[in-house]
Amino acid sequence: MIIDVTGPDVYGNAAYKKLFEDIMSDSGMAVALEKVTLILDPATPLFIFSVLMRNRPESKKVADAVSIRTEGNEVHITIADENFAPQILSALWRLYGRERVDQQTRFDIKINDADEDKIANIQIASGEDAKQEIIGALWRVLPEGIKARHNISEGRLITIAATEEIMTSELKEKALAVHKRMKGDADV
Q: Which of 13, 71, 77, 118 could cross-link with 5 by S-S, CB 3.0 to 4.6 Å?
């Protein structure tokens, strides 16, 4: 992840970059980000964070995260992407009840009297959920008390402007300019 920080204080820029890296890493979002621009203007105050994700967030179905097969009246799945294990298990419990879902190992699950196609097509994540998680992580990086926020989201690119003052059209235009610069030639 490439991070560009612009602000009036060299020490503050470095500290904010470290804070950003730590929060994104702790939230599991660092691997999803390709490029980041942080504009820090505490005098205004205005903070603009623009992030370009590695991939366009998209919805995921169980079939995207498991290998699946049917043996008799049992469906067996092996979770290949452990990031989705809690969502998969929760969805199976909701659909079939805990008594029909047998988690044999951390990644192997057997479902009695189940339909393979129905299981394969269960949605376990939406692209919008992924964007909201990234936006939530970005908000955690913002200074306490910065409550007026303006979000711009387009494909793989998210830009947030935040101030403790009124979010004027001037501030929104600054955020849009950063958003457009980040967009550049990127396939958003």
A: 13
Q: What's the rounded Cα separation, in Å, for the pair 130 and 127?
A: 5
Q: Which residues are 60's β-sheet partners? A: 125
- pLDDT tens, the chain, 188 aa long: 899 999 999 999 999 999 999 999 988 888 889 999 999 999 999 999 999 998 876 778 999 999 999 999 999 999 998 888 998 999 999 999 999 999 999 899 999 999 999 999 999 887 777 788 888 889 888 888 888 999 999 888 999 999 998 999 999 999 999 999 998 866 65
**Class of domain 2-57+127-183 as given by CATH:** alpha beta
Burial tier of 151 (Cβ tally within 10 Å: 0-12, 13-18, 19+): middle
The span from the CA of 42 to the CA of 40, in Å, is 6
Q: Is the peptide bond before 86 cis (omega within 30 degrees of 0)?
A: no
List the structure tokens of 18. Answer: 């470290």
- Residues in contact with 15: Cβ distance below 8 Å, sequence separation at least 6, in sequence order: none
Tell which phi-psi region holds residue 40, choosing left (phi > 0), alpha (psi between -120 and 50) or beta.
beta
Question: pTM, whole model, 2 decimals?
Answer: 0.69
